[in-house]
Amino acid sequence: MLKLFTPNYYIHRYTALRPAFLKEQGIQLLICDIDNTLVPHDVAVPDDEAIAFLKSIQDAGIQIVFISNNVEERVATFAKGLNIPFYPFAMKPLPKTYRKMLKDFHVKRDVVAVLGDQLMTDILGANVMRFYTILTAQVVERDLSFTKVNRVFENIVFSLLKVTGKLVKGEYDE
Ligand SMILES: [Mg+2]
């Protein structure tokens, strides 16, 4: 059970995720969360650093898609001009949207990675799908109200992961 909450790779910030590393894992599709993974939830557009990161992944020949439980307006505004497909209202951790992506991009699950900041949504849903899972520490401490609830459960899971020696919060793999 705890295995479903354990990421394959744990980083302090998205910038620590190197395109060459993804290539080594055989990744062809990177599903990327937005809120508190790339920017705080109340920042509407990507900054230069996020844009450079996304471009570096694309330049390596890896397709990026955005996934978000947030509303379409927020996700569309963020993705504008980036030429990156996006899936709002994703209802993570339900596998529905992840499944749709496999169909839309005609890829097998073993070439897909997910980058996100939440164990309870991003990582759980992606592990159920048996994707390669990458957890990043959140960009800022502040969260959307429904995310605050998730964080309470997330901290319990972090405690269990620590006790069982699977993962220690703040001890990164990079
Ligand atoms: Mg997030």
From TrEMBL:
Species name: Longicatena caecimuris
An example Gene Ontology molecular-function term: phosphatidylglycerophosphatase activity
Protein name: YqeG family HAD IIIA-type phosphatase
Entries under NCBIfam families matching the protein: HAD-SF-IIIA, YqeG_hyp_ppase
Pfam families named in the record: Hydrolase
SUPFAM superfamilies: HAD-like
